[in-house]
Design brief:
This protein has 172 residues and is α/β, with parallel strands linked by helices. It has one domain (4-171): Class I glutamine amidotransferase (GATase) domain (Rossmann fold, 3-Layer(aba) Sandwich), CATH 3.40.50. The protein is 33% helix and 23% strand. The chain contains six helices and eleven strands. The protein has helices at 15-27, 75-80, 86-96, 109-112, 126-134, 159-171, and strands spanning 4-8, 31-36, 42-44, 50-52, 55-56, 67-70, 101-104, 121-122, 138-139, 144-147, 150-153. Helix 1 packs parallel to helix 6 (159-171). Belongs to the peptidase C56 family. InterPro entries: C56_PfpI-like, Class_I_gatase-like, DJ-1/PfpI.
Length: 172
């Protein structure tokens, strides 16, 4: 059965951390929906990839999606700067309801705002590991980590393992 995967995206996302998982998700027969600050707004990755936002966060309902993808780059930090905390609140639906979350590189930063990381085992790019640890997560240095519904990876070097795990989780 085809599933819908929400992606939280803003400018300065890491291009390959969006395009590679998106391709893997679509190749497995699932749909990717980009959620950003405003519908129909174009966001640009660090290396020039342009993506049009499908749904603005004000109109997005987390329960409409079967999984959540959080690419890295500087975008997660920009999304966390939302004065209303809407992106963290959106992600919290997934952490509290055991709905799959796929976060790579800086992507797990958004999960910090859920206040649901206590005791979870995760990985991420080196720069945010201390932040995850301060949020209560047990942080390890592995290419991909699965802790119940949360799948995390470190960097683009881990995309093969990350994408494989995404496909596996969406099969379930």
């Amino acid at each position: 059965m085809a599933k819908k995967v929400a992606v939280l995206l803003d400018n300065e996302f890491e291009d390959i951390e969006f395009t590679s998982p998106k391709e893997a998700i679509e190749n497995a027969g699932h749909e990717v929906v980009v959620i950003g600050k405003n519908a129909n707004e174009e966001v640009t990755g660090k290396h020039g990839e342009k993506v049009t936002v499908d749904v603005g966060i004000a109109d997005a309902k987390a329960e409409d999606y079967d999984a959540l993808l959080l690419p890295g780059g500087f975008a997660p930090d920009l999304l966390r700067g939302d004065s209303e905390g809407r992106f963290g609140a959106f992600a919290k639906y997934y952490t509290t309801n055991d709905v799959p979350v796929f976060a790579i590189c800086h992507g797990p930063q958004i999960l910090i705002d859920t206040d649901d990381l206590e005791g979870r085992t995760m990985t991420a790019v080196l720069n945010i590991r201390k932040d995850l640890s301060n949020a209560g997560a047990h942080v390890v240095d592995e290419s991909v980590v699965v802790d119940k519904n949360i799948v995390t990876s470190r960097t683009p070097d881990d995309l093969d393992d990350f994408n494989h795990e995404i496909a596996k989780q969406l099969e379930a």
